[in-house]
Amino acid sequence: MLPARFAxxxxxxxLSGLMSLMVSGVSTYRALxxxxxxxxxxxxxxxxxxxxxxxxxxxxxxxxxRIVTRLTR
Length: 73
Known about the structure:
- This protein has 73 residues and is an all-alpha fold.
- It has one domain (19-71).
- It has two helices and no strands.
- The protein has helices spanning 7-32, 38-71.
- The longest helix is centred in the C-terminal third of the chain and has 34 residues, at 38-71.
- The chain is elongated, with a radius of gyration of 16 Å.
C-alpha cells in the first residue's frame, strides 16, 4: 500500500490512464475501424495520449476543484 499522501497523484494517474485509453480507442476505431492495425495503433496512440493527459490532470484538477467548490454549496 502507498501512503495516503500519494492519493492525489495516484488518482490522477489512474484517471488519466483510463480516460486516455477510452478516448484514444474511440478515435483510433473511428480512423481505422477494426483493421489488423487497430490494436497496435491504439496502444501507440494511448501511450502518447497518456503522456499528455497525466500532467494535464495534475494541473487542471485543483482548478476544477476550486470551480466546483464555488458552484456548489
